[in-house]
Amino acid sequence: MTEIQIETAKMLLTSSKKIVILPHRNPDGDAMGSTLALYHFLKKLNHQPILISPNEFPDFLAWMPGSETVLIYEKDKVGTKAVLEQAELIFTLDFNALHRTGEMEHDLTTLKAPFIMIDHHQAPDSYAEVTFSDTTYGSTCEMVYDFIADLNGLELIDKTIATCLYAGIVTDSGSFKFPKTTGKTHRTVAHLIDLGIDNSEIHNLLFNNNSFESLQLLGKALQNMKLLKAQKTAYITLTQEELDRYHFKKGDTEGIVNYGLSIKDIIFAAIFIENKEEGIIKISLRSIGDFDVNQLAREHFHGGGHINAAGGKSLVSMKETISNFEQIVKNNPNLKF
């Protein structure tokens, strides 16, 4: 953060305030970890924070300290809108455009309270009074740690806050294997471990808590995988019927897209998941090296993200979506070898 940003944030947090903290729709470990860590930190500063998620978060994140306090916008739009209207300050974490909150976007654009954005995705919108945006970070949780440091609050980080931060860092770093994992990342994590977190148990809760049905769904996804060898591309499809057959729950498809990148010589992987209720095909894209999936998602799939990890959606059928995708891939000059 710049000195001006730090001073503005300090000014906004000088007196006790009603503060709303927001993650993006379909929050992942980094979104929930960063918002919950900030929630606990702001309570220590004698503020009155409330965390509102646009929709339900996955069950495998429900163990995180403070998750039981989270309000769900889709469950109570009237009540949560009233909370938003009473807010004196709003934090948006792990996203940088209000449309990432889905139906909440309209309510957010009518608010008078100032916003503080903390995010590591590309091309931030300009809605916030303080915009802490930096794509060199591997996770928003690492940014929240530095935000706390900039407020001279590191001594206030306890085991609870550290647990939330660690969960987000380990999630978005791919258990510390992604390229944006730096020496500074490990030094931050070392401090969190020194504060008493059970890093082994956190890893188990995040990654080793599968149901039998979710493993069957994984098996079906791998059966559905297709390769475009000439373009070093792998993709997976899951229809609504397949999701229903294996009793899909939110979070069950987390990380499946990465299996494509585990194949020798593959540099680009995608997963297409049908959602009949929303009338879309949800898309996750991953890559290795300098192939930019953020640009591809923005140009073709109403989405965006990072160079090596992005998401989007298709508004046509699965068959048409896959046909379009294959043509996009085969015509992409960066996938001609």
Keywords for this structure?
single chain; 337 residues; alpha/beta; Diaminopimelate Epimerase, Chain A, domain 1; 6-stranded parallel β-sheet
Strand content: 15-25%
Helix-strand topology string: HEHEEHEHEEHHHHHEEHHEEHEEH
The number of distinct helices, counting runs of at least 4 residues, comes to 13
Rg is 20 Å
Shape summary: globular
* Main beta sheet strand tally, sense and closure: 6 strands, parallel
CATH topology of the largest domain: inorganic pyrophosphatase (n-terminal core)
**CATH homologous superfamily caption of the largest domain:** inorganic pyrophosphatase (n-terminal core)
Distance between the termini: 41 Å
The CATH top-level class label of the largest domain: Alpha Beta
Question: What would you say the CATH architecture of the largest domain is?
Answer: Alpha-Beta Complex
| Strand runs, count | 12
Number of domains: 2
Contiguous low-pLDDT stretches (5 residues minimum) are none
Secondary structure class reads alpha/beta
Largest beta sheet: strand ordering: 3-2-1-4-5-6
User: How much helical structure, as a percent, in the residues?
Assistant: 25-40%
